[in-house]
Amino acid sequence: MNSQSFDKANLICGILLILAGIFFAYQSIELELGTAFRMGPGYFPFILAMALILFGAIILFQAFRVEGEPIGPIAWRGIIFILAAPIFFGITVRGLGFVPSLFFTGLIAAFASHKMKPLTAVVLAALLTIFSIAVFSYGLGLPFQRFGPWVRF
Amino acid sequence: MDLFNNLLLGFQTAGSIENLFFCLIGVLLGTLIGVLPGIGATATIAMLLPITFQLEPVSSLIMLAGIYYGAQYGGSTTAILINMPGESSSAVTAIDGYQMARKGKAGAALAIAAIGSFFAGTVSTFLVAIFALPLTGIALQFGAAEYFSLMVVGLVSSIALAHGSIIKALAMVALGLLLGLVGTDIYTGAPRFTLGIREYADGLNFVAVAVGVFGIAEILRNLENERTREVLMAKVSGLMPSREDLRAIVAPVLRGTAIGSVLGILPGGGAILASFASYTVEKKVSKHPEEFGHGAVAGVAGPESANNAGAQTSFIPLLTLGIPANPVMALMVGAMIIQGIVPGPNVAAEQPALFWGIIASMWIGNLMLVILNLPLIGLWVKLLTIPYYLLFPIIMAFCSIGVYSVNSNVYDLYAVAFFGLLGYLLLKLRCEPAPLLLGFVLGPLLEENLRRAMILSRGDPSTFVTRPISAGLLFIAVVVLIVVFLPSVRKKREEVFVEED
Question: Residue limits of the DUF112 domain (chain B) (predicted)?
């Protein structure tokens, strides 16, 4: 553990909160603020955004006072594959349809772990798809197209 | 006897074949996810919300409630068997329960946990039934100012019960409230913070936010370093606790139930606090405090009763005021709104069958848990050996289906990815997601009541302190805030949460 004179987590946290606060404050000003009597759409969010900036500033200030624990490992591989799964599902569910879209969603997510072997992943995704079709599409009758326009001939 | 008639109505509703079936599904699912690590009750309920659309309102709420207390139960099973609490509220159970298991008393520990939980569940179900109506009466006198103040109390308590830095928790509430305001302004129709994306005009999907911040963030954290779990338990034998064990748990169970019932009502996650409080009390009053940490029976019985009692009584603020006490209750609010029920004091009067049906189902559900879980423990132990890398693709697929089926809005799926990333970031920065989610749910309500109260008072903010109920509530909020900032309490609070980790 290398010794740092400041707490990295709090530093990042403070900066991000202040940035988020500025974003919301700026957006609120563009809306009508109104008065305390008749509050406009921007009034309450503006107060909250100011509070957020204040809290962010306090956290930032604290970051330089105490040394913190290290942030620890970051699951980069997990982030890439896990977050890609719902996005892929969102992009393809209408075009490809429920069945192929779900199969690939499961497959993508499966590769987030380095322990997963390709064959296991394919089998798992296939079983998962069959189960989901049976339960959600046939069992619960959710109104999904099983195969979409992209894969129909 | 009104109470008697009401309970009768409740048991008639909950006792129908259909509702019994959904209650059973709920508790089984709940136990399952409580046992499986890496996925908590919050994420599961979030994923299952859309599926409940097709059901009757009563059935769907009964099932969701079943998942909630089933998960508490399942969490204790893993806490005892592998020293890994499936739910944060059973973290305390792991301390002594796991030690009992190592001494070969796993069966007894599981049975004690089950008996304690069942007793606590029975008592607190009656408490909910007794207190729900009078509280509803008070709630009916609430105006905009009172609702605003009450929500402030809820948010402040969620800060008090969050881990770590109080300032961070405050920031999370503010961020959550802001995220809750995304969408169209109800008074002027102006779109707010939607970044020009029309699909977000109705606001961010609550299910997407909850699944992202709780479910996906948790998966990512588990992927950081994939350990292989070792199931220490070869077999669970001797389920019946000995006579002296049974005698030893009577007092802890009673105390735990009392502590849990009171703390559960507090908004902000009482069940977790309850189990800690109960453990501390048991350790203090015990004649053999040195046994604690080495398999003390009271250290299992007390906290288990307390967390179950707390889980039940946390329905009181939801059913009477429509204010969620914890993230799971926030999801229940979501479920009620989806079913077209506005949670709040009117539910008891307008939908007595629903209201009392849910209360009665809690007791039935607890009974099912005792009957089912003891024989099924072998099965649950087997499930523990499923490797994690097989689980999360399944979880991700169900998350995607669940979120998409709420509104068939693909932007909700992008929101899941975004909030998953945000949740993971917050986790890494040691920020608690629970206050954020509570803020998110209460954001629109809070703003609406603030604006209404200010219009009614013609712009005079003193309305919040001149109306007695509102002033009382705000006073409570201020006291809670002062207390958590007191240096001595702060230190104590840190100790409690360190112990949990």
Answer: 20-438
Q: Residues for chain B: how many in total?
A: 501
Compute CA distances B478 → A49, B171, B373, B485, whole Å.
Answer: 21, 17, 43, 11
How near does any CA of chain B get to the CA of A121, in Å? 8
* List of E strands, B161-284: 183-184, 191-192
Which residues on chain B are in Cβ contact (under 8 Å) with A37? 454-455, 458-459
- Residues in chain A closer than 8 A to B416 (CB atoms): 86
* CB–CB contact B185 A107 (8 Å): no
> What is the average pLDDT across B76-102?
75
Interface test with A, best of B213, B223, B409, B445 (most A CBs within 10 A): B223
Residue of A71, A79, A109 with shortest CB distance to B393:
A109
Q: Distance from CA of residue B212 to its chain's centroid? A: 17
- The Cα B33–Cα B59 span in angstroms is 20
Contact B213, B433 (CB under 8 A): yes
pLDDT in tens, B152-208: 887 887 777 666 778 888 999 999 999 988 888 877 878 888 787 777 877 888 778
pLDDT band of residue B493 (cuts 50, 70, 90) is: low
How far does A4 lie from chain B, in Å, by closest CA?
A: 16
φ/ψ of residue B300, rounded to 5 = -95, -45
**Claim to verify: residue A35 and residue A93 sit in the same structural domain:** no
**A59 and A80 inside one domain:** no
- What element of type H or E holds A30? helix A8-30
Q: Does residue A153 carry a pLDDT above 80?
A: no
Among candidate residues B451, B440, B463, the one with its CA nearest the CA of residue B154: B440
pLDDT in tens, B317-353: 777 777 776 777 777 877 787 777 777 777 777 788 8
- Assess contact for B153 and B473: CB atoms under 8 A: yes
Same domain, A94 and A31: no
Examine the domain organization and report whether A13 and A38 are in the same domain: yes
Q: Which residues of B touch A61 (CB under 8 A)?
A: none
Q: Is A60 at the interface with chain B, CB within 8 A? A: no
- Closest by Cβ to B225, choosing from A38, A73, A90: A73
- Its domain, for residue A94, covers 76-148
Q: Which of B185, B410, B430 sits opposite A93 (nearest CB)?
A: B410
Residue A110 vs residues A122, B72, B217: alpha-carbon distances, Å: 9, 28, 16
Residue B49 gets which letter from DSSP? G
- pTM score of the predicted model: 0.80
A56 Cα to chain B: minimum distance (Å): 7
